[in-house]
Amino acid sequence: MSWVVNICFLLVSSGTLSALPLVINTWAFRKATDKAWQTLHSGSSALDAVEKGCQQCEIDQCDGSVGYGGSPDERGETTLDAMIMNGDTMEVGAVADLRRIKNAIGVARAVMEYSRHTLLVGESASLFAQNMGFISEDLETNTSLSIFANWLNKNCQPNFWRNVSPDPLESCGPYKPAPGLQKRERHPKIIIQNHDTIGMIVVDSFGHVAVGTSTNGATHKIAGRVGDSPIPGAGAYADSTVGGAAATGDGDIMMRFLPSYQAVEYMRTGMDPSLACGKVISRIKKYFPSFFGAIICANSTGSYGASCNRLPQFTQFSFMVYNSSVDGSVQNVVTCI
């Protein structure tokens, strides 16, 4: 009997063999990996590959957590965050709370190439995008509107409010400060069922590194919330003299530690990518033992690794790799610490 295995599971540890070029991204978003590889293989730059790979996830609405039609905020609107970084020049372009524009990673690159700024947000970011030729269109879908309607029917539970009145466990607000309610909270968990980011690292044959992220953020977030994804050093970071890193998970916690920047700095000392990723996760875990999150790391010679925080419902983390040593993209699995 003949058969073909389409997914290869690998337990990644320190000492992963180097091979360039390399594409690595969070989660089992295979079409995004393949698109980035095809772009790179066609002769385009690492930066082009990151943009096209992340854009593929926006088009595919990867798991409902990237692109249009997912993760409505508490007003029912889907908004997008994205970032792209050139590890050769240390230039960054990013957008946050982007409205009505589907290609968030493309707008982020436009910020980098057509402005002297790093991050644009909200309605002004959308107007910038329209001026750059991006099409304005509705980001809501029947799916996202249904998610929002079901949430309203449950008295807006769970939500991200605390220390307010009326009681955020029993109502939809509007809210006012009420410190006396600080013990009554029900946290909306950021878990594997609603993870919120594609993070991608690309290293070309010459060791040039680029990274990117794209997300529609946390479901039922307070309008205007920005997570870690568009923040340089938090959602992703690249330095072609060292490597790159990208994070995924509970951005409100992870962004406080600049995990992607820290991982690159650990690799700068010569640390193996897997060890660098693990050290970053351990650092966050010291303060927030039950946080949900993971990080991928790659150095400029093509070695890579990943790490994640172990939770009852999250014991392994999947990520995609495509390099010159394999014939096709490969799904890797790392056991959480």
UniProtKB/TrEMBL annotation:
GO terms for biological process: proteolysis. It is an enzyme of class 3 (hydrolase). One of its GO terms (cellular component) is lysosome. It catalyses: N(4)-(beta-N-acetyl-D-glucosaminyl)-L-asparagine + H2O = N-acetyl-beta-D-glucosaminylamine + L-aspartate + H(+). Residues 1-19 form the signal peptide. It holds the Pfam family Asparaginase_2. Cleaves the GlcNAc-Asn bond which joins oligosaccharides to the peptide of asparagine-linked glycoproteins. This is N(4)-(Beta-N-acetylglucosaminyl)-L-asparaginase. The gene is AGA.
